[in-house]
Amino acid sequence: MLDKNLHVLIVGMGLLGGSYARGLKERGYRVETVTRSQKSLDYALKNGMVDGGAAWPDPRIIGRADVIVLAVYPHVLLEWLRDNQQYCKPGAVITDVTGVKTCVVYEAQAMLRDDVEYIPAHPMAGREVLGVENSDPHIFRGANYIVTPTEKNTPAAIELCEELGRTLGFARISRLSPEKHDEMIGFVSQLTHCIAVALMTCNDDPGLARYTGDSFRDLTRIARINDEMWSELFLDNREALLREIDGFSAELMRLRAMLDEGDREGLRAMMRRSTARREALNKDRVNPEETR
Amino acid sequence: MLDKNLHVLIVGMGLLGGSYARGLKERGYRVETVTRSQKSLDYALKNGMVDGGAAWPDPRIIGRADVIVLAVYPHVLLEWLRDNQQYCKPGAVITDVTGVKTCVVYEAQAMLRDDVEYIPAHPMAGREVLGVENSDPHIFRGANYIVTPTEKNTPAAIELCEELGRTLGFARISRLSPEKHDEMIGFVSQLTHCIAVALMTCNDDPGLARYTGDSFRDLTRIARINDEMWSELFLDNREALLREIDGFSAELMRLRAMLDEGDREGLRAMMRRSTARREALNKDRVNPEETR
């Protein structure tokens, strides 16, 4: 568990920032926030999710934090560090929640003061709804928490960042390089969202809904998507995501060719491979939630 | 409700045949079965799912049925009619449960005796598990039941077929031409299975399962697939399915091009369209289950 004497600052009171705040307050930590939205701040204060906060980057609040969690969009993260690192306490450890790493991690570490450390992390949890009013620390239960350290990080900060994940109740704490993280997320999360969006928009027969069943609904659940956030995540991870789209498309074209040629045995072999892998996935089930 | 005096024969005691039998028996109908599997017959008899039956096409059982439900694979359906229509009672109405229509309906009607009528239907319900022991009439609750009549069908037989669907508890009874049905099923059901299989087989990183969350699991749930049945369904509906794969691929390539070109506004517009359509689908929700 994270040391109870540490003061935690959450930057950004959205779904994830709010869930971190609630989770830490429930466990007795002192939590403050700075956020751009007066409304979100008021909600968090009124609901006892934080001990204090400001709707602007108040230097006094920033200056007393030992641990700072940047729960904001990737481009906001870099802006925030540029403008506010001057207020951080010497020795403060900064972490984040963003779903892409390579595009922010190196730039953030390069610009940062020497006496403050940024250790990146990705809590793979979320909901289809947004905002502090939907925040809920139970989304972390059973979920993956991935720390993506670089050569610049110290063992102590990596350990503290993992402690934060354990304290919040994540089931599985892993370490990956920023590059490996982005490749993995390009496949398991971003590619799936691309597929869902394309499936939802490729056919506009209005009578369709009348005949959809579980499979179509399952494949398009994530087609209800936050366009501002996901377009940013896709573009921030463009090269990895393009490779994953191409890999998937090539496989779908292999299936199409077998169908076109009437290659029943080829289709059956592919389906058996698919079935075996899906069953292996079930056995390894840990994570009931993921960033959406 | 279906007339209680009608004798129903279920041909094939698998998941769907068994679910029809249980559903009809629960509502007090007289149900018999002929099936190729002695084991399935024994199970159905032992569990009171049928009043009688045989593990071969017993002419006496076939000859006393007013309504015959062919709950078998498409190619078995045609074989069965060819071999056993001679035993049917004059005036008998035959229906089925197969998920592809064009490839069986016309051939079946062309070969049939003039005093017996075949009215095709597709109950859009199923489970990921197979066999009579997994049969369950509750899978029909909230589901779609589609009748696909041709010019050869009489209003009386169409009505009786729809009554059967209502009696079994389907939420929505529709009529479609066999061609329109196959186009629709190519999109909402077969294309989704192709996508799930390709997604499951396109990447064989063994560390993958460690990081998968809800979206990947949702998109690949149906990647656990009965290769014998689905390869037959895909090949029986080849032309429609090829068109649907091509339509989806073109849309995914549109998304890929926007990503490659950094067209943020284009991506956001596509995501907003996707979100609006998915929300409309939620509002129109009726069917919690579908053929898999």
Strand and helix map with partners:
Two copies of one chain form a homodimer.
Chain A: E1 7-11, H1 15-26, E2 30-34, H2 38-46, E3 52-54, H3 59-63, E4 67-70, H4 74-84, E5 93-96, H5 102-111, E6 117-118, E7 121-124, E8 144-147, H6 155-167, E9 172-175, H7 178-201, H8 214-220, H9 227-236, H10 238-261, H11 264-283
Parallel strand pairs in A: 1-2, 1-4, 2-3, 4-5, 5-6, 8-9
Antiparallel strand pairs in A: 7-8
Helix pairs in contact in A: 4-5, 7-10
CATH classification, class level of the largest domain in chain A: Alpha Beta
Work out the number of β strands of chain A. 9
Radius of gyration of chain A: 21 Å
Main beta sheet of chain A: strand number and arrangement? 6 strands, parallel
Give the structural class of chain A. alpha/beta
Q: Choose one word for the global shape of chain A.
A: elongated
Tell me the domain tally of chain A: 2
How much is the average pLDDT of chain A?
Answer: 93
CATH architecture of the largest domain in chain A: 3-Layer(aba) Sandwich
CATH fold call of the largest domain in chain A:
Rossmann fold
Strand order of the largest sheet of chain A: 3-2-1-4-5-6
The protein's oligomeric status is: homodimer
General description of the model:
Two copies of one chain form a homodimer. With 292 residues, chain A is an alpha/beta fold. In chain A, helix 4 runs parallel beside helix 5. Chain A folds into two domains: 7-176, Rossmann fold (3-Layer(aba) Sandwich); 181-283, Orthogonal Bundle (6-phosphogluconate dehydrogenase C-terminal fold), CATH 1.10.3660. In chain A, the strands form two sheets. The first copy, chain A, has a six-stranded parallel β-sheet with strand order 3-2-1-4-5-6. Chain A has a three-stranded mixed β-sheet with strand order 7-8-9, with helices on one face. Helices cover 50% and strands 12% of the residues of chain A. In chain A, helix 2 (38-46) links the parallel strand 2 and strand 3 (52-54). Chain A starts with 6 loop residues before the first strand and ends in a 9-residue tail after the last helix. Chain A is elongated and about 70 Å long. Chain A has eleven helices and nine strands. The longest helix of chain A is centred in the middle third of the chain and has 24 residues, at 178-201. Chain A has helices spanning 15-26, 38-46, 59-63, 74-84, 102-111, 155-167, 178-201, 214-220, 227-236, 238-261, 264-283; strands at residues 7-11, 30-34, 52-54, 67-70, 93-96, 117-118, 121-124, 144-147, 172-175. At the A-B interface, helix 7, helix 8, helix 9, helix 10 and helix 11 of A face helix 7, helix 8, helix 9, helix 10 and helix 11 of B.
